[in-house]
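REQUEST FORM: STRUCTURE PREDICTION
Request ID: SP-0412
Submitted by: Lab K.M.
Chain count: 1
Length (residues): 377
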Amino acid sequence: MSNAHTAISSSRRIVAGTLLLVMVTMAAIMHVVADDSQAPASSQPADTNASPPPTDESNDYQAYIALRPFRAGYRRQEFEYAALDGSMLRRQLDLWYPADEREAAYLYLYQRGQVAVDADVAEGKHPLVLFSHGFMGASDQSIYIMEALARAGYIVAAVNHNDALLNQRDQSVVPPRAFDLDEWNDMMYADRRHDVVMLLDELLAWNETSDHRFEGRIDPEEIGAIGHSLGGYTVMGLAGAWPSWRDERIKVAILYSPFVHPFRENGDLGSVTIPVMMQGATFDIGISQYLLSIYRRLECPRHYLILEGATHLVWTNLVSVRSTTVDCLEEENPCLIVEYSIAFLDHFLLGQDRSEMLEADEPRLHDWAAHLDVERQ
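STATUS: Completed
RESULT:
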């Protein structure tokens, strides 16, 4: 066996081992209920009592951003839609959004958050972000990020994929075949792509439905997508790395520790034309050390950063499970995740110049790179 083949096999074992470790860890997180979980949140974001965002057709996002922070609203409901095989699916759907009502401490299943539950959506049109969770994660696996995006004025929608940990299912979930990257193609996890597309169809239908709580609240021209781990694979596929997956309605992609290895083997990274941000971490073994090679093959506007001293799960509720979704942002890495994500969305979705931050040397990061001046497609 050649040294090159041995190296490739070794790297694939590392990737596979990492994914299995993540699966076990996520299972532990989802069942954690801290002894102090009934305690109220210790701090609250400032309530600015801001006026609603502008409602004119131009939707002046410079004025819109000046109203931050918005109050974060939250709603959970079921989402029913047809699967690829025609059967009907009923999945958990979580929504965070700018709200008109005051926030209050809220106990999620295992997280202490700060939201206005079931509040009305704030007046005006808001940019939309779709979130795709990791393998055996959940639509609510990254609450602190979702709440922060809502306070920045983004509507965030996240649905459970088939592999979500707490889904009721008749058959066990088969882990991703990380050993067999050569066999990956656009049929792998195509159901995840379908979930996101159907969710987007539904949200835009709500936007046009008279008397719906989301009527006229979504800006259909400003839609982004965020994915973690296998969700990063999902979003990269939708961005065009699997050309058959491309959804032209999605204008920006942010990938948290994305499992994008299959695209290096069989995908078409040159077909990705929308702006892409890739975030990794120094202790994200098996994934992040390969991101820079993927980043360098992209030709779209892009940004890359590596967090210092963080693991694959820094983008999940693990970082706030014994704190709150607000207090955890006082920690360095969660703060950086949120700040860079919002800056990238602002820059490419809302047309607000954030190049000074995105291109500045940041000593708190282990590594970073930026190519923002490629013409936006």
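NOTES: Confidence is low (pLDDT under 50) at residues 1-58.
Reviewed by: T.R.
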